[in-house]
C-alpha cells in the first residue's frame, strides 16, 4: 500500500514524540515505530534531565553550557550547547506542565540531584542539576509525551520497520516500511520526514541498549550518501551490571554512591580529585578499566564495586528503586547491604546524522536536504561532542525534537511531495526476497555475535590502531558473509527472524563506519581513547569527522568545530 | 545446566490448531528466560516469534505466561525453574497473532479510554506547579506501570467480561485521579464508577501478584472505589 501524509516521524521515543506533539494539529502527521511507542528505548533512561533551575542550590545555564562543552572534550559545537543549556529551563517546566511526575523538594519544586560532570562556577564543585522522577525519569517522560500524542489524536503505525529512504536531487522523496504483523511492504509518501530512530548500541556485545537499537535511520541516511558525523565517539557507561550490561544509573553516584576497587579504595579520588565519582562517564569508565588492568578489580576479576550501602533504605526506595530491583532480580543482591559488581557497558552514540540547530539533515556539502530531518540519538547536532554528560540526552531529545518539529511546521508551506520513482519499493522487495529464498547460508545471529565480540574486544574504552585494524578486517569479512545470510522463518506474520537479518545490515555498516573513523583519529579525546595516541591534539584534531559511504568503501573528511565562548583547554576534574 | 521448554506455537495463516513444541537449551542458572528464548530462536528454530526489547523489565514487551503465571521473560531467571519444564504461552485473554505474540489493541484502547494524560485547564505558571512531596508520593507506585498487560491478562474478571476496563487502565486512572495537578478528578471518578469500571474488581489480587513492577494494583483500585464513595457520595 501507499500511505500519504504531510509529515512522517520515524521513531516514537522522546525526540519523535516531542516533535509529534509540536506538529500534530498543524499538519497531517503520522508516527512510525518498530515497537509500541511506550516501549521505545527512551523509557530506559533513569537518572534525570539536566536544567539549571537552581531549585536546590544556585546554578546557571552558562555553567551548564560550559560543562556540556568541557564534558564533550571541546568537540561540542558551542552554539548547540548554548541552545541546549538555555532552553533547558523552558523544556523542563514544559514537561512538568504536561504532567511529568517529578520528585519534589520540600517546598514543592522539582527536585534536583548531582550528576557526572555537572558543576557550579565553571567546573569548581558538583551542583544539583538533574531533575528526576526517582530512577525512571525517561519512562515517565515517555509516558507523558505519549499521553499528549494520544490526546492530540496522533496517527501511529506500530510495529512497522523502516527499510528504505529515497532521496532525489537532495530532496527526501519517500520511505519504504515493513509491517511486521503481516509481512507487507508499504510506501510512505510525505512532504517531510523526521528520523528519530535512536542509537545502535547493539553493535557491541555488552550494552545497556535494547534489542531494537539497531541504527536503522542512521544507516539508511548513510546508505543514501549522507555522511555520518563523529561516529568514533561511543559512550561506555561506567556502571553496567557485571556480565549483563544493564544500566545502573549515574544517579546512584549522584545520591552518594561510591566506586571501590578490590582493595576497597575509593579509586576515583586519584583520577578526578575535585568531582571524584561524579567525573564524566568517559573518565570514570577509563578509571575502572585501568583499575581492572592493574589487577585491582574485585578479587582480581574484571569488575569493581558500586557501593550504595551507606545511603540508607529510605533513600534507595525513594530515589533509586528501579536499580535496587534490577540488582535484586538479576544478582540476588540487596543494594542496602551489598556492593554491586559493575563494569563499563556501551550506552550511547555521540555521533550520527549531521543536522543543523533546527534538525535539518545536512548533506555532503553541509547543506540541508529538503524535507529530511533528524533528532535525538540518531542525530549529531553536535551537542555532546566527544562525550555526552548524563542527563543531557533526555534534554537533547525534548529540546531538539521540538525544534525539528517547529522547523517542519515552518517549512511545510513550501515543501511538496516529490514525485516517487516507478516502483520505489522494488529494491526492498528484492532484498527481502533474496534473503527469504536463499537455500543455504549463515544465520544473522551468528554473524551478529561475531561482530559484537570483535567490536567489544577492540573498540571500547581503550583502543589502538592494531586492534581496530583487526576488527575492521573482521567486519569487512562479515559484510561479505552477510551477502549469504539466511533465515529459518519463511512465513509472513511477525517474522522476527527476517527482521533481525535486515537489522544486521545496518549494524555491520555502522560498525565499519565507527572503526574507520576511530582508526583515522590519531589522538585521544573524550570517549575515544587511543593507547597509541594518548594525548588530545587540538592542532590536528579539533574537528568533526564525516564518514561517507561510497562504492570504494567509507570516505573520510572533516569539518570545523564551532567555538564561540570557551577556548579549548586541558580537561581536568 | 540443561533446561527444557515447552512452547505454545500457532501461526493462524497455516495452522488449524495451536500446538506445543519442545526445546532443550543449555543455560547458566543466572540467565534470563528471555536469554533461553533467544538461544532457541537464534540457534535452533528461527520460526519462533515473540516480542522483546529492553531485556530488563522496563519496556514491557516480553510479557507472557510462564508456567501458568503472567510475567516478563526478561525478569525471570533459569534458576527460578530448576528441575522443572518451563511452559511458555501467550498472555491469556488476548487474541494470539503468532506464537507468543498477542493483539494488544483492545488493551491499549482501554488505557486510552481513561485519558492517560494530565488535564489541567487553568493557566500554567511561568515555572513549575508546586506540588507537596507527600502529595506527589501518592502516585509513586502507580507511575511505575509499563503497560506490559500482565495484570489485565491475569485478571479473572477480564477473562469473563471483555467490557471490564481492567487493572492496568484503572492504574492509569489512579495516576491522574490522585495527581493534585489534574482538575478532572470528578469526571475521571464518574467514568470509572461503573460495574465495568472500578466496581468490576472483586479483589482476586491476581493483578497484584503478577505485576512485574510490584504496583499494589488491587489496593489502588480499592482506593479509587473509596474516593468514588467520598467524592461522588455513593
Number of helices of chain A: 16
The overall pLDDT of chain A, averaged over residues, is 97
The residue ranges of chain B in which pLDDT falls below 50 over 5 or more consecutive positions are none
> Count of DSSP helices of chain B?
9
Structural Rg of chain A = 22 Å
Gyration radius over CA of chain B = 20 Å
Largest interface: A-B, 63 and 60 residues
- Assembly state: heterodimer
How far is the N terminus from the C terminus of chain B?
57 Å
Beta strands of chain A, count: 22
Query: How many β strands of chain B by DSSP?
Result: 7
Strand content of chain A: 15-25%
Structural class per helix/strand content of chain A?
Answer: alpha/beta
Structural class of chain B: alpha+beta
Distance between the termini of chain A: 56 Å
Portion of residues in beta strands of chain B equals 5-15%
Overall shape of chain B: it is elongated
User: What is the helix content of chain A?
Assistant: 25-40%
Q: Largest sheet of chain B, order of strands side by side?
A: 2-1-5-3-4
Describe this structure in words.
The complex is a heterodimer of chains A (573) and B (234). Chain A has 573 residues and is an alpha/beta fold. Chain A contains 16 helices and 22 strands. In chain A, strand 16 and strand 17 form a beta hairpin. The longest helix of chain A has 25 residues, at 496-520. Chain A is globular. Chain A starts with a strand and ends in a 13-residue tail after the last strand. Chain B is of the alpha+beta class. Chain B is built from nine helices and seven strands; from the N terminus they run ββαβββββαααααααα. In chain B, the strands form two sheets. Chain B has a five-stranded mixed β-sheet. Chain B has a two-stranded antiparallel sheet with strand order 6-7. In chain B, helix 2 (105-113) packs parallel to helix 6. Chain B is elongated. In chain B, 51% of the residues are buried. The mean pLDDT of chain B is 96. At the A-B interface, helix 3, helix 4 and helix 10 of A face helix 1 of B.
